[in-house]
Design goal:
Distance between the termini: 26 Å
Largest sheet: none
Strand content: under 5%
Helix content: over 70%
Number of strands: 0
Structural class: mainly alpha
Length: about 140
């Protein structure tokens, strides 16, 4: 039988994966909101190629910047529940977000554009930074 602290620790790793997926879903939702807002509120009545071009540009920018920001924010949310190995947990959030992003890219683009590689590196940095900040602010313990 698994002791309760071990189950709690394994739950944190699973939660880190879920938070990573949520970070990527938040990025996707943000891209959709921005593109649809442009289409229906800012520039209605344009031709479909104009909307497609805007979607490509906006998706590229939001995917990189927003993806990194959401990875950082969701990793910081996770840090409230994690008392050890904060950097590793932050990296797991990033890896889960990257996995969903790259998986979607492979399914949709049949490849991984350079922007996804840049975004992945920034997500790793964002997850690690969230963990570093949490580790620095954690109370010192006698171990």
């Amino acid at each position: 039988m698994t002791d309760p602290p071990a189950r709690a620790r394994s739950g944190h790793w699973l939660r880190a994966i879920v938070y990573g997926f949520l970070a990527e879903v938040a990025t996707i939702i943000t891209i959709i909101i921005v593109v649809k807002g442009y289409q229906y509120v800012i520039a209605p009545g344009q031709a479909d190629p104009a909307y497609a071009a805007f979607g490509e540009r906006a998706g590229g920018i939001i995917g990189i910047v927003g993806g990194s920001l959401f990875t950082f924010l969701f990793a910081r949310l996770l840090m409230r529940r994690v008392s050890a190995r904060q950097v590793a947990h932050g990296v797991v959030v990033a890896v889960a977000a990257i996995a969903l992003s790259v998986g979607g890219s492979l399914a949709g683009h049949q490849g991984v554009p350079m922007g996804y590689i840049v975004a992945s590196a920034l997500k790793l940095g964002a997850g690690a930074l969230a963990g570093i900040l949490a580790a620095r602010s954690a109370p010192a313990t006698d171990a």
